[in-house]
User: Fold these one by one.
Assistant:
Number 1:
Amino acid sequence: YVEKHINAVTRYNVLRAFENVSLVEVFIKTGRWHQIRLHFAMIGHPVVNDKEHGDFGWNIKFQRKYKAKRLLLHASSIEFLHPFTKKHIMIEAPLPDYFVAVVNSIPEAPSSSRRRD
């Protein structure tokens, strides 16, 4: 399958840092299968509740503590050029209530322990 041999690029910004997780904004241009999930797992920061690429034991503890049962990954927007009309299409979706509730229940990390790059 050709797509597996094409490079994929994932860029991200940390929006909020917590003690052992972060809320990030991710930008992908290539859109490969499980790209975000694979790239974050590869750098040692799997997506919360990712059953294929994450840490099963850690996810169970997180689920119990924060009542988070779903994968915490959300596409807030997508843009593309329509293949027939050639019009630019942009679709946006706010974070679901369950996602916001989980994020708001996690205490933020002390500012001294936040990573700075």
Note: DSSP finds three helices and four strands in the chain.
Number 2:
Amino acid sequence: HQLSKLSGVYIHYGQNDKIMRISSQAFGEYLKKKQKSRHLVVEALKEKGVLKLVNGMLGGGTPFSQPAAHLFEIDLTAAPDLDFMDV
């Protein structure tokens, strides 16, 4: 593993609870690269009832722990057909 190349943790996927937590800022940057409207994507996910904004930390307990920040919490059990590769 090339851990020295990591600049931080921007996403966390809970294998047991199927909850994805992603940095709001990183998600916005991802959508911008994909030329998608952050506002429209976030509103669509909220309408499906699978996304909420929370405050939290990513990478806690690791050398890559990030400061507390706004995170999007996405419940993948509520939207099993959600495909982020198409976003």
Note: The beta strands are 11-13, 19-23, 51-56, 69-75.
Number 3:
Amino acid sequence: MFKVITFYKYVELEHLRYWMHKFRWVCSELNLFGRVLVAEEGVNGAICGKIENVEEFKRKIKESEIFSDLTFREMNSRGQVYHKLTVKTRGEIVVFGEKVDLNMKGLHISPEKLKTMLDKKEKIVLLDARDAHECKIGKFKNALTLSIENFKEFSKAANNLEPYKKEKIVMYCTGGIRCEKSSAFLKKNGFENVYQLKGGILNFIDKFPNTYFEGGCFVFDDRLTASSGKPITICEHCSKKSDRYFNCHNLDCDRLFVCCDYCNEKNNYCCSDECKNSERQRMVSI
């Protein structure tokens, strides 16, 4: 069995090249694949490997005092979900595009607390901080979503949230990292009652699967989707229920599309007949 873990921590880091080489060395030593971004504002990573190696990675990284309190979102996997290891330095560990004061971030709400609030039907606005294609295949029931293509568009899209300025807002994203910045941005702009789901969707569905999160959760690895319950989207070929995303194998297209496994193989892993018959096709790994 393999395990996939994601982690992040906003913390002032010095000597970025040291930390870049540190993460790369530990991952390489343990035969772990994935991606780790290091910046002056902290670290953001997602890796996969055999369970015992992932556990050793966690132990080694937490030996460093600055990461001794690092937390992880974890999912078991039947195999490796990354095809290589990438460790880089960046200007931001998640690109927001403008400065925010993280001391203003929304208070964390545990999955247990959110479930209790939803069970009691408390009046809250569940706000999805993710991109539109992520929300398409899965989201919390009755959640408010934004029509953004990437996280840099959040600040502009927040103009549409003015009607909810006095409401109690609970934000969520895949693992929590985007809510740290976006909740701080909202509070800076007069949204006083802002909270964020601790550990994001992955933490919630790990503890409470098949409850309030509907469909699949988009993930940033070769799986593209982590199934969590009944699909809310349909296959673009046959219209049967599916929550699986695929990249079109026409190299000149490469768009994400929802498809069932049967139609995906039948259509040569392509989104249309035109793409199916194109000459430039991605190789299928066996």
Note: The radius of gyration is 20 Å.
Number 4:
Amino acid sequence: MQTLTNATILTVDEQDHFYPDGRIWIENGRIAAVGPAETLPERGEVVDLGGGLVLPGLINTHTHSHSSLFRNQADDLALMDWLKKAMWPMEKFLSPERAYAATALSCLEYLRGGITTYADQFYYADTIAEAARRSGLRCFLAATVFTDPSPETADTFGAAEAFVERWKGREEETRVYPCIGPHAPYSVSGELFQKVTELSEKYDLLVHTHISETEDENAQLRTSTGLSPTQWLERLGVFERPVLAAHSIHLGDTDLDIYQKHGVHVTYNPVSNMKLASGAAPVAQLLTAGVNVALGTDGMSSNDNHSMFEEMKLAALLARVTSLDPLALRDDTVLKMATVNGARAQGRHAGVMAAGYQADLILVDLRAPNLQPCHDVKSNLIYAANASNVCMNMARGTIIYENGNFLTLDLDEILREVERYAVPKLFS
């Protein structure tokens, strides 16, 4: 038994409990109890949290971890130019070694920034999985599938299936949850999407894909099929499986109805969407329709950092400025998008602090100058906090980052490997 004490606690549970002077009991990696200090006597090992703010770990629902090697490589490009002229040519430099180094680098950023769980989609899934396993983070990892060859293999579907077979069933041991990642309707054929759907059914996998990120890709598919990407995927039967849809910016009313009907989960990536000038997702309309919306950073080649604090702030601001409505996205909703909604998108009962839930939580230093004075904790988190304010990251009751110290990964070794394997700067 462990007692975390001297803390302000934000549970993000259904009742939105808030304890200005709270305590948490942790036993066997799970929360045994959480509440006011006066109702929970100290038991077992006592950890004084110094008056900091405890909340559920942040959940990044869309990223490409080893794109950190391409950080600040290709600015000032729209999506298709960015992909065809920059990303795909640069990705030819990838190798298992480069993929591991870059993924480990991203994991350092996740740890330091209060992320306890992330959803990844990329090549070299086995390498990504190994870096994730060592980090102690929880990773929902989708091996990316393309119709065309990838830098890893000409048979991306075969590689994805082999990855699933190697890692499925080991989730409790590795904290790596295999998924399947058909890249997008413009890069994956209908026949291949159907094979992906069958594989998802066979192994009970989450399907993680990109949908309607730009108007151009919508127009491209309408020209060839007469349908929107959402309508096309529904016709193929993809939405009979659980789907995590990245971006979902350019959706019509029929698309919204399809999302609601099939329980499609959306991962909203405001920073990436703004950097690539892709547009603003209709978040308020999605939420009104009852669609679950979570947050993601996307990869570093279209964002440049993995800050979920930045995503929360810009998610709220972008929704307000595009709707001219200050109530378009309330603080409570934004915080849920970064925690419990992310867990829901991954098919988990998590992302809250309550008895029985795994002890994946973070500690924020409320004494930081940028968080003082603290009149409203949620507002402070969304509009004033940044990743550097996180002073502890805990996974299943074990501290994996604390006060600048990475307890599962070797910072110096990873930085040496990144310097060794960094992709040459190809674009100015």
Note: The mean pLDDT is 94.
